[in-house]
Design brief:
Order of helices and strands: EHHEEHEHEHHH
Number of helices: 7
Largest sheet: 3 strands, antiparallel
Low-confidence stretches: none
Length: 180
């Protein structure tokens, strides 16, 4: 997710908008979003650039957090064809023996990203806390949003998996109505 400094200036005014963004200087920020595909559980980190050096450590930490949450190692990662996922990132995945798939677009992550962005701007307009706190609040809202397919929130689905219970299944579509 790309968060532009000029968007904050426009929304909150020049002084407040730039002061609101974490880190020094007037530059854009990015979110690194990772989504567990079966539950829709989201992990998100703020990045200060869209290069491999900014992505590698947060992605490694997200993989470790998913390992703790799931109770097992992440086996497969899907990402888009952005340059930030090349080079050292693929070497790290190879070293951890994690299979990876490059896609033109990643619908699961893109849909969570759209949700996250919508929630983010709704929270930002409230201007009560700093940017990092709002991102946490935004992720919390996203984790507690009911998934229409599974009938569970991502947080509840992940809790069930952690407890060793059967994970979320897709609900069946209702049978078509009979015509008279």
């Amino acid at each position: 997710v790309h968060v532009r400094a000029k968007d904050f200036k426009k929304l909150l005014g020049k002084k407040t908008g730039l002061g609101f963004m974490p880190g020094a200087g007037e530059h854009d920020r990015y979110f690194l979003n990772s989504v567990e595909t079966h539950t829709g559980y989201l992990l998100s980190d703020i990045l200060y650039g869209k290069k491999v050096k900014y992505v590698l450590d947060p992605l490694t930490k997200q993989l470790e957090r998913f390992k703790v949450l799931l109770g097992r190692k992440v086996a497969r990662v899907e990402f888009d064809k952005g340059k930030e996922f090349m080079g050292d990132v693929t070497k790290m995945l190879d070293a951890k023996k994690i299979r990876y798939v490059r896609k033109v677009t990643n619908a699961i992550v893109e849909s969570k990203t759209a949700n996250t962005q919508r929630n983010c701007w709704a929270v930002v307009v409230q201007t009560r806390t700093g940017f990092a706190d709002r991102v946490e609040q935004d992720v919390k809202i996203t984790k507690n949003t009911l998934n229409r397919t599974t009938g569970l929130t991502p947080l509840r689905a992940m809790t069930l998996i952690r407890q060793g219970k059967v994970g979320p299944y897709k609900r069946r579509a209702p049978a078509p109505a009979k015509l008279k």
